[in-house]
Amino acid sequence: MERTLKLIPFTFHLKRNIFFLIAIIFFLSSCGTRKYTVKNDTKASKAADAMANLQSKSLYRFITDWTGVKYRFGGLDKGGIDCSGFAFLLEKEIYGITLPRISREQANVVKRKNIDNLKEGDLVFFSFGGNDVDHVGVYLNNGFFVHASTTRGVIVDDLTLPAYQRVFVKSGSVN
Fold this sequence. Notes:
Blueprint: H1 2-33, H2 43-52, H3 57-66, E1 76-77, E2 80-81, H4 83-95, H5 103-109, E3 111-112, E4 123-126, E5 135-141, E6 144-149, E7 153-158, H6 162-165, E8 168-173
Antiparallel strand pairs: 1-2, 3-8, 4-5, 4-8, 5-6, 6-7
């Protein structure tokens, strides 16, 4: 009878430990399959939507290939690129259009277009340092554009942000 009494606590602890082990395994495996989503109203999700809604898949590939490349004044390669160099390369590779190399000169060759009528590939111009155009980006859709930011490198950004609205100068198409 003593043997039976000793086995019951051992059996009880063994069953409890097995149950606990199964619970931990189940919990850990469920964590690995959990899907994390970005809230639909965040800037990142809206930028991702703008990329997903691009008409040109070659434009999508070009942007994803360059995203994150650091800004370098006068740069024209993956070691660093400036805004006009990025617009220059994008327009040439994706649309076969040769732009001038400097943003101010790029602004002079576009056919002015209302910001509400912009199409994928149109250019948007800004003046951060006064009256002259000193920054350029390429419009995507739904108020988003891609550019080489001096602080964040090549990035998709929201044209409707007040920081860009205050310095927006002109938009238009090359063709």
